[in-house]
Design a protein that fits this description.
The protein is built from 10 helices and 12 strands. By secondary structure, the protein is α/β, with parallel strands linked by helices. It folds into 2 domains: about 120 residues, Aspartate Aminotransferase, domain 1; about 220 residues, Aspartate Aminotransferase, domain 2 (3-Layer(aba) Sandwich), CATH 3.40.640. A 7-stranded mixed beta sheet has the order 2-8-7-6-5-3-4, with helices on both faces. It has a 3-stranded antiparallel beta sheet with strand order 9-10-12, covered by helices on one side. A two-stranded parallel sheet has the order 1-11. α2 runs parallel beside α6.
């Protein structure tokens, strides 16, 4: 299998797996200990979690605290629900974890429009009385990088909090600097699934979403997994040391993939984007047939969280594309462990599948 679905999840870094193994509690090990217990084994597990917390925090701005969660969805819910505000404004291309939660909190939710390149204007109108503004750093479907720091400053000027879903950006790009709340996920930066974090700026009050034990300084009750935390921390440290080499590798793959899909339309800005996300379309393409015929290649037609819904992408619709055109788009994601040979083979398979439908750039 050639894996090109890095926006859905990234492969687990070997270093992250190695960091997890001692805390899985195999035979002869006391790594299974509860990190909230006061005995020696518990204290050792707790220390491993704090080491991991420091590593994750190093990817984020100074002047805040990291609260471990089960993933970014929980972190975003904690931010949106825990902020206590009922007047929300979010970008039209947010992940469902933000959009659906925000709509549940504020039925009169204000959507901040994007242009045809999938970018929120830093001067986009924000309704008076808004208590929290949410704009993601990097879009998960089309890879566009938003001007989040500029929008955050505008939110602050009107007395609102600013929340950033940085799941697709942190560990690859520099973290947002001007934010009150930042959500991240381990499995989008080569760590394990089942753990994420919410960064909360010092002085920002957040009510707990989950109560019942007072863990995570009273903000998120429940027994933490030292193994997951250790994997998250190791992945974060690796991202910090490999950020430049990862970016250079992705840039080379991007150029190769763009050349392979010459004549296909690019969804999203060609410049303001994370280049590990290539979302392309071509008129007449039956995406379901491509996915069926390219079974040895893992790609997608959009967000993994919305797969199977049958609905056109709300992100592509926000760009102004019709439902018909939106249904001709493919998302191809690559990263640290993708080789040029794998990418070339996958592009050739996708082009062959399109050609078998009679769809080529010349015929489009």
């Amino acid at each position: 299998m050639i894996y090109l679905d890095y926006q859905a999840t990234t492969p687990l870094a070997p270093e992250a797996l190695d960091a997890m193994l001692p805390w899985l509690g195999g035979p002869g090990s006391d790594g299974f200990a509860n990190p909230h217990s006061p005995n020696r084994a518990g204290r050792a597990a707790a220390a491993a979690i704090e080491v991991a917390r420091d590593a994750v925090a190093a990817l984020l701005p100074p002047g805040g605290r990291v609260i471990f969660t089960s993933g970014a969805t929980e972190a975003l819910n904690m931010a949106l629900r825990g902020s206590g505000t009922r007047r929300l404004a979010v970008s039209a291309i947010e992940h469902a974890a933000v959009l659906d939660t925000a709509r549940a909190i504020d039925p009169g939710l204000s959507l901040l429009a994007v242009d045809s390149d999938g970018l929120v204007d830093s001067a986009v109108p924000i309704p008076e009385g808004t208590g929290l503004v949410a704009v993601m750093q990097v879009n998960n479907e089309i890879g566009t990088v938003q001007p989040v720091d500029a929008i955050a400053r505008r939110a602050w000027a009107m007395g609102a909090l600013f929340l950033c879903d940085a799941v697709q950006g942190v560990g690859k790009l520099g973290a947002p600097v001007e934010a009150d709340l930042i959500a991240v996920s381990a499995h989008k930066l080569y760590g394990p699934k089942g753990i994420g974090a919410l960064w909360v700026r010092d002085g920002v009050a957040i009510d707990p979403l989950i109560t019942g034990g007072g863990q995570e300084h009273g903000k998120r009750s429940g027994t933490l997994s030292p193994a997951l935390a250790a994997g998250f921390g190791a992945a974060a440290r690796l991202c910090a040391t490999m950020r430049e080499s990862d970016a250079a590798h992705v840039d080379a793959l991007w150029a190769r993939a763009r050349a392979g899909f010459a004549g296909w339309a690019l969804n999203g800005s060609a410049t303001e984007r994370w280049r590990g996300n290539l979302n392309v379309r071509i008129d007449g393409l039956d995406v379901a047939r491509v996915l069926s015929e390219c079974r040895s290649v893992a790609i997608s037609a959009g967000s993994a969280c919305a797969s199977g819904s049958g609905r056109p992408s709300h992100v592509l619709r926000a760009l102004g594309l019709s439902d018909r055109v939106a249904r001709t788009a493919l998302r191809i994601g690559f990263g640290r462990y993708t080789t040029e040979e794998e990418l070339d083979e996958a592009v050739a398979a996708i082009l062959a599948a399109a050609s078998a439908q009679g769809v080529t750039p010349q015929s489009a």
